[in-house]
From TrEMBL:
Any one Gene Ontology cellular component term annotated for this protein: cytosol
Organismal lineage: Eukaryota, Metazoa, Ecdysozoa, Arthropoda, Hexapoda
GO MF, one example: guanyl-nucleotide exchange factor activity
Protein name, UniProt field: Putative elongation factor-1 betadelta
Family label: Belongs to the EF-1-beta/EF-1-delta family.
SUPFAM superfamilies assigned: eEF-1beta-like
Ranges for domain Translation elongation factor EF1B beta/delta subunit guanine nucleotide exchange: 171-257
Native source species: Phlebotomus kandelakii
C-alpha cells in the first residue's frame, strides 16, 4: 500500500508553495510602487526648485532695470530735494541777517541812551506892545472888498448873459372842427373868412373838409398859438362871429409844443 502511494506523482505541498509565491509577488509589487512614488516626488522637487530659480532671476532683472515711472518719481524727489535745500539755505541767510541786525541794534542802543539830549530852543524875546498907529486889520478888509467886487462883477456878467438868451415861449397846436349850417354852405368862403382872423401869436396851418352826414362837410383846420398871447376862447368867439356860415366851433385836439 505504502509502495503504491510512493510510486504515485502527487504534489502534496502545493498550498505552501502557492502561499510563498503569493507573498513574493506581493512584496515585489509593494517595492515597485514605493520606488515609483519616490521618483515622482524627486521630479516634483526638482521642478519646484527650477521655478523658484526662474522667479528669482525675474525679480533680479526687474530690480536691475527700473521702469519709467520709477525714474520719474526719483527725478521728482531729487528736484523737490533741491528746492527744499535752496529754501532752507535762503532761510538760513535770512536768520543770519536778522541776527546781525539785532546785534547791531543792541550795540547801538546804549550809545543812543548816552548821547546828550538836544538843547531846548531858546524862548523868543517878548515884544512889548506899542501903539504905533498900525491897523492890523486893514489888509484883511481890503482883500474882502476886492473879493466882493470880483463876485459882483461876475454876477452882473452872468445876469447880462442870461438876459440876452431868448426866453422859452410856450406854444400849443390846436385842431378846430368848424361846422356849417347845411350842405349848401360855401365851405371855401368859410375857410377864407376864418383865415382872415389875425392875432399876435396865431399861425394858421393845414385844413381839410371832413364829411359828416347827408352831404354835409365840416372844416377841420389846425393852428399854432402862443399861450401867453392867444386865448383859445377868444379865438373860438372870433370864428363864431361868422354867423352866416358857421354853426359851431369845437376843439378836436389840443397839444402842447
Amino acid at each position: 500500500m505504502s509502495c503504491a502511494l510512493s510510486a504515485e506523482r502527487v504534489w502534496l505541498d502545493k498550498a505552501q508553495y502557492s502561499d510563498a509565491e503569493k507573498k513574493f509577488y506581493e512584496s515585489t509589487a509593494k517595492g515597485g510602487s514605493t520606488g515609483i512614488s519616490l521618483v515622482s516626488e524627486i521630479a516634483k522637487a526638482r521642478q519646484h526648485i527650477k521655478k523658484s530659480l526662474e522667479r528669482m532671476d525675474g525679480i533680479a532683472a526687474l530690480a536691475s532695470t527700473p521702469g519709467n515711472e520709477l525714474f520719474e518719481r526719483l527725478n521728482s524727489l531729487e528736484s523737490e530735494n533741491k528746492r527744499l535745500h535752496s529754501v532752507v539755505t535762503g532761510m538760513e541767510k535770512l536768520v543770519v541777517s536778522l541776527q546781525e541786525r539785532v546785534s547791531a541794534l543792541e550795540m547801538g542802543a546804549p550809545a543812543k541812551a548816552v548821547a546828550p539830549a538836544a538843547k531846548a530852543p531858546a524862548p523868543a524875546p517878548k515884544v512889548e506892545d506899542e501903539d504905533d498907529g498900525v491897523d492890523l486889520f486893514a489888509s484883511e478888509s481890503e482883500e474882502d472888498e476886492a473879493a466882493n467886487e470880483v463876485k459882483e462883477a461876475r454876477l452882473a456878467e452872468y445876469n447880462a448873459r442870461k438876459s440876452k438868451k431868448p426866453a422859452l415861449i410856450a406854444k400849443s397846436n390846436i385842431i378846430l372842427d368848424i361846422k356849417p349850417w347845411d350842405d349848401e354852405t360855401d365851405m371855401k368862403a368859410m375857410e377864407t373868412l376864418v383865415r382872415q382872423i389875425e392875432m399876435e401869436g396865431l399861425l394858421w396851418g393845414a385844413s381839410k373838409l371832413v364829411p359828416l352826414a347827408y352831404g354835409i362837410h365840416k372844416l377841420q383846420v389846425s393852428c399854432v398859438v402862443e399861450d401867453e398871447k392867444v386865448s383859445v376862447d377868444l379865438l373860438t368867439e372870433e370864428i363864431e362871429k361868422i354867423e352866416d356860415l358857421v354853426q359851431s366851433v369845437d376843439i378836436a385836439a389840443f397839444n402842447k409844443i
